[in-house]
Design brief:
The protein is an all-alpha fold. The chain folds into two domains: 57 residues, no CATH class; 61 residues, no CATH class. 87% of the residues lie in helices and 0% in strands. Helix 1 runs parallel beside helix 4. The longest helix is centred in the middle third of the chain and has 21 residues. The N and C termini lie far apart (36 Å). The relative contact order is 0.10. InterPro entries: TPR-like_helical_dom_sf. Keywords: Signal.
Protein backbone atom coordinates (compact mmCIF):
# COMPACT_ATOMS: atom_id res chain seq x y z
CA UNK A 1 0.00 0.00 0.00
CA UNK A 2 2.75 2.45 0.93
CA UNK A 3 4.77 1.77 -2.22
CA UNK A 4 1.62 2.16 -4.30
CA UNK A 5 0.81 5.53 -2.71
CA UNK A 6 4.36 6.77 -3.27
CA UNK A 7 4.23 5.84 -6.94
CA UNK A 8 0.72 7.25 -7.38
CA UNK A 9 1.79 10.54 -5.81
CA UNK A 10 4.83 10.84 -8.07
CA UNK A 11 2.74 10.06 -11.16
CA UNK A 12 0.08 12.60 -10.14
CA UNK A 13 2.77 15.22 -9.51
CA UNK A 14 4.31 14.51 -12.91
CA UNK A 15 0.90 14.84 -14.58
CA UNK A 16 0.24 18.12 -12.79
CA UNK A 17 3.62 19.51 -13.80
CA UNK A 18 3.10 18.44 -17.40
CA UNK A 19 -0.30 20.19 -17.60
CA UNK A 20 -2.37 17.01 -17.54
CA UNK A 21 -4.21 18.38 -14.57
CA UNK A 22 -7.46 16.44 -14.92
CA UNK A 23 -5.58 13.12 -14.89
CA UNK A 24 -3.66 14.24 -11.79
CA UNK A 25 -6.96 15.09 -10.10
CA UNK A 26 -8.37 11.66 -10.98
CA UNK A 27 -5.37 9.82 -9.52
CA UNK A 28 -5.39 11.87 -6.31
CA UNK A 29 -9.13 11.39 -5.87
CA UNK A 30 -8.80 7.62 -6.32
CA UNK A 31 -5.94 7.49 -3.84
CA UNK A 32 -7.96 9.39 -1.24
CA UNK A 33 -10.77 6.86 -1.71
CA UNK A 34 -8.29 4.01 -1.16
CA UNK A 35 -6.86 5.71 1.92
CA UNK A 36 -10.35 6.10 3.35
CA UNK A 37 -11.02 2.39 2.80
CA UNK A 38 -7.89 1.30 4.64
CA UNK A 39 -8.92 -0.96 7.50
CA UNK A 40 -8.69 0.37 11.04
CA UNK A 41 -5.77 -1.88 12.06
CA UNK A 42 -3.66 -0.53 9.21
CA UNK A 43 -4.67 3.03 10.09
CA UNK A 44 -3.44 2.57 13.66
CA UNK A 45 -0.20 0.99 12.52
CA UNK A 46 0.62 3.58 9.83
CA UNK A 47 -1.30 6.57 11.16
CA UNK A 48 1.50 9.13 10.73
CA UNK A 49 2.35 7.90 7.26
CA UNK A 50 -1.31 7.86 6.21
CA UNK A 51 -1.75 11.43 7.43
CA UNK A 52 1.24 12.45 5.33
CA UNK A 53 -0.33 10.83 2.28
CA UNK A 54 -3.68 12.50 3.02
CA UNK A 55 -2.08 15.91 3.25
CA UNK A 56 0.15 15.30 0.20
CA UNK A 57 -2.75 14.25 -2.03
CA UNK A 58 -4.99 17.04 -0.73
CA UNK A 59 -2.24 19.61 -1.28
CA UNK A 60 -1.75 18.35 -4.80
CA UNK A 61 -5.51 18.57 -5.41
CA UNK A 62 -5.56 22.08 -3.94
CA UNK A 63 -2.84 23.18 -6.34
CA UNK A 64 -4.43 21.38 -9.30
CA UNK A 65 -7.80 23.04 -8.78
CA UNK A 66 -6.11 26.42 -8.39
CA UNK A 67 -4.35 25.92 -11.73
CA UNK A 68 -7.62 25.26 -13.56
CA UNK A 69 -9.37 28.10 -11.69
CA UNK A 70 -11.87 25.80 -9.98
CA UNK A 71 -11.82 27.95 -6.88
CA UNK A 72 -14.75 26.23 -5.19
CA UNK A 73 -12.92 22.89 -5.16
CA UNK A 74 -9.61 24.57 -4.36
CA UNK A 75 -11.17 26.30 -1.38
CA UNK A 76 -12.71 23.03 -0.17
CA UNK A 77 -9.34 21.25 -0.19
CA UNK A 78 -7.56 24.31 1.19
CA UNK A 79 -9.82 24.43 4.22
CA UNK A 80 -9.25 20.70 4.82
CA UNK A 81 -5.52 21.32 4.62
CA UNK A 82 -5.75 24.12 7.17
CA UNK A 83 -7.27 21.66 9.64
CA UNK A 84 -4.66 18.98 8.90
CA UNK A 85 -1.73 21.38 9.17
CA UNK A 86 -3.11 23.03 12.28
CA UNK A 87 -3.64 19.68 14.02
CA UNK A 88 -0.16 18.47 13.08
CA UNK A 89 1.52 21.75 14.08
CA UNK A 90 2.87 22.48 10.60
CA UNK A 91 2.80 26.27 10.93
CA UNK A 92 4.69 27.13 7.76
CA UNK A 93 2.41 25.01 5.59
CA UNK A 94 -0.68 26.30 7.39
CA UNK A 95 0.46 29.87 6.76
CA UNK A 96 1.13 29.17 3.08
CA UNK A 97 -2.30 27.62 2.57
CA UNK A 98 -3.99 30.46 4.49
CA UNK A 99 -2.30 32.96 2.20
CA UNK A 100 -3.28 31.04 -0.95
CA UNK A 101 -6.86 30.72 0.30
CA UNK A 102 -6.97 34.45 1.01
CA UNK A 103 -5.97 35.12 -2.60
CA UNK A 104 -8.66 32.75 -3.90
CA UNK A 105 -11.35 34.30 -1.72
CA UNK A 106 -10.24 37.82 -2.64
CA UNK A 107 -10.49 36.96 -6.36
CA UNK A 108 -14.14 36.08 -5.70
CA UNK A 109 -14.72 39.54 -4.17
CA UNK A 110 -15.31 38.06 -0.71
CA UNK A 111 -13.22 40.72 0.94
CA UNK A 112 -14.27 40.16 4.55
CA UNK A 113 -13.33 36.47 4.36
CA UNK A 114 -10.11 37.35 2.53
CA UNK A 115 -9.16 39.86 5.22
CA UNK A 116 -9.64 37.23 7.94
CA UNK A 117 -7.51 34.72 6.03
CA UNK A 118 -4.78 37.31 5.40
CA UNK A 119 -4.72 38.12 9.12
CA UNK A 120 -4.56 34.43 9.96
CA UNK A 121 -1.70 33.95 7.49
CA UNK A 122 0.25 36.87 8.97
CA UNK A 123 -0.24 35.60 12.52
CA UNK A 124 0.81 32.09 11.59
CA UNK A 125 3.86 33.36 9.67
CA UNK A 126 4.90 35.38 12.74
CA UNK A 127 4.53 32.35 14.99
CA UNK A 128 6.60 30.30 12.55
CA UNK A 129 9.30 32.99 12.59
CA UNK A 130 8.97 33.95 8.97
Amino acid sequence: MIAFMNIAFLVALFLLNSDRIQKAIEICSECLILLNKTDQNSKDQFNTLLLQFYSAFKLLLFNAYRRISDYISAERYGRKLLVLFSESGELEREGDVSLALAEIVESQNRFTDAKQLYKKAVNIKRLAGE
